[in-house]
Amino acid sequence: MGRKSLKEARKKEIIKVFYGLAKKNGLENTSIAKIAAKMEINPSLIIHYFQTREDLVYGLVDYILDKYKLIYKVSAAHSKDSRKALLEIIGNIFSKKWNALFDDGLFYGCYAMAFHDAKVRDLYKKLLDSLREMLIGHIEQCREDGVLDIEDVETVADNIFVLIDGAYFYLSLVSDKNEYEHRLAKYRQQALSILHLKELSEVAG
Amino acid sequence: MGRKSLKEARKKEIIKVFYGLAKKNGLENTSIAKIAAKMEINPSLIIHYFQTREDLVYGLVDYILDKYKLIYKVSAAHSKDSRKALLEIIGNIFSKKWNALFDDGLFYGCYAMAFHDAKVRDLYKKLLDSLREMLIGHIEQCREDGVLDIEDVETVADNIFVLIDGAYFYLSLVSDKNEYEHRLAKYRQQALSILHLKELSEVAG
DNA sequence: TTATAAATTGAATGAATGTTCAATTAATTT
DNA sequence: AAATTAATTGAACATTCATTCAATTTATAA
Questions:
Q1: CB of B185 within 8 Å of any CB in chain A?
Q2: What is the CATH number of the domain that holds B159?
Q3: Are residues A42 and A118 in the same domain?
Q4: Is the distance from CB of B170 to CB of B107 less than 8 angstroms?
Q5: Is the pLDDT of residue B198 over 80?
Q6: Is the same domain home to A45 and A81?
Q7: How many Å apart are CA A140 and CA A151, to the nearest integer?
Q8: Number of alpha helices (DSSP H) and beta strands (DSSP E) in chain A
Q9: A61 found inside a domain
Q10: Does B72 lie in the same domain as B120?
Q11: Exposed end of chain A (fewer CB within 10 Å): N or C?
């Protein structure tokens, strides 16, 4: 009996507001009090759900990494065709839509925490490793299906993986829209070149 | 007349202590008071030299980016031989010594600030662009000297540039020494492959 | 030695921080 | 209706924060 718990839903609400404010003003300028003010609730309610600010930040990191994971999602339509699946992933990764859906500033802000917080470090490490494994899996599948001419799958996957991180890193500073798209296209090309593939025109959406 | 100014030297001292503390505890956990305590001086002295905390942070960013620039330095010995100069740069970049000399955590922490601070953004953008230009210059020189078989210099430079950023990004999370060195070697190999060069055994130090 | 200018201290400020605890309000079950 | 459980508030806490200002110490040149 008693009232039914809103715990999980409420925690997510709080983290979303946290995310929004931190995106605008930076992680270091976003306090519990400010989140509470924005939500028009009492600061102690936030502490009620997350016992400490530290836990709240861990929640944000989870939230951010979950979003990041989406970049590697494959649509059901291509899940049977390994070649199309891989091309979709490459196409997705090097598409400008992430610019709107995902905030790089927070991604790097939280990443910086990994250097003095073991828990954050583990979260990032595990995520990145799982994404790389996923990429290896897709490429391996393509090779088995005979649609990809590659010797060392791991090395190829690794080079693409690093290309992604580096591309995202630099692109975050490019504000000119045309330059942004131009570079994005170049990086995609480079990814395909690493895979020994030509430019993709067949796979759209 | 009057006392001679220690301003610049003192500012640098303060920033070095700032750097040291922020490296250990994170940027967000390093206050003016803590820096002052570590130096056994009065907090107001720090404000005397840097008018606001904001300015102090800008000073730190400058300091960090200056260090980062060193990665691209070419020793005098190789400055006449474009091929050796390029190989030295590649060798330098993908060497583990930066792990000790340079703190990636702060680099990313400050980088995150670029997303909501125009000044920091400009500092990073200008530095990265100048480094890329530098790389283009070296590669272009090699091509002119006929020691490099490359069509599109800018694209090649860009791909290496992005490889560097991506490599640094992921390597920051690799704590196992053997894996670290193994990956580093792989990334260097990939850089040379982009340049259409074989593994370098001739250039040491 | 005296004037000068910079270095440095020390005390004080108000605002914001994260966190606590007890009290109250609002659902849901018996 | 009564009991129960969770949501939420509100007041208070000690700490820390960046910053201020006036006072003092210290070095240098005239």
A1: no
A2: 1.10.357
A3: no
A4: no
A5: no
A6: no
A7: 10
A8: 10, 0
A9: no
A10: yes
A11: N
- CATH code, B28: 1.10.10
d(CA B61, CA A157): 34
Our count of domains for chain B comes to 2
The interface predicted TM-score of the complex, written ipTM, equals 0.92
Ramachandran category for residue A126: left, alpha or beta (phi over 0 → left; psi -120 to 50 → alpha): alpha
Q: Do residues A92 and A73 touch, judged by C-beta distance below 8 A?
A: yes
**Looking at the complex, does the CB of residue B127 fall below 8 Å from at least one CB of chain A?**
no
Give buried/exposed letters for A97-107 (b at 16+ CB in 10 A, else e): ebbeeebbbbb
Average pLDDT over chain B, rounded to an integer: 92
Residues B172 and B86 reside in one and the same domain: yes
Q: Per the CB < 8 Å rule, is A105 touching B115?
A: yes
Is residue B153 within 8 Å of B139, Cβ to Cβ? Answer: yes
Separation of alpha carbons A139 and A197, rounded Å: 12
- DSSP one-letter code for A75: -
Share of chain B above pLDDT 90, in %: 84
Check whether residue B45 and residue B130 sit in a common domain.
no
B187 within some domain: yes
Are the C-beta atoms of residues A163 and B162 closer than 8 Å to each other?
Answer: yes
How far in angstroms lies nucleotide C2's C1' from the CA of residue B3? 14
Report CA(A45)–C1'(D13) in Å, whole number: 17
Contact (CB<8Å) B109/A112: yes
What percentage of chain B exceeds 70 in pLDDT? 96
- Yes or no: say if B64 and B110 are a contact pair by the CB < 8 Å rule: yes
Distance in angstroms (rounded) separating the CA atoms of residues B16 and B175: 25
Domain limits for position B160: 67-194
Q: Is residue B86 within 8 Å of B139, Cβ to Cβ?
A: yes
Q: Is the pLDDT of residue B29 over 90?
A: yes
Q: Is the dihedral of CA B145, B146, B150, B152 positive or negative?
A: positive
Q: Tell me the nt nearest to B45, Cα to C1'.
A: C8
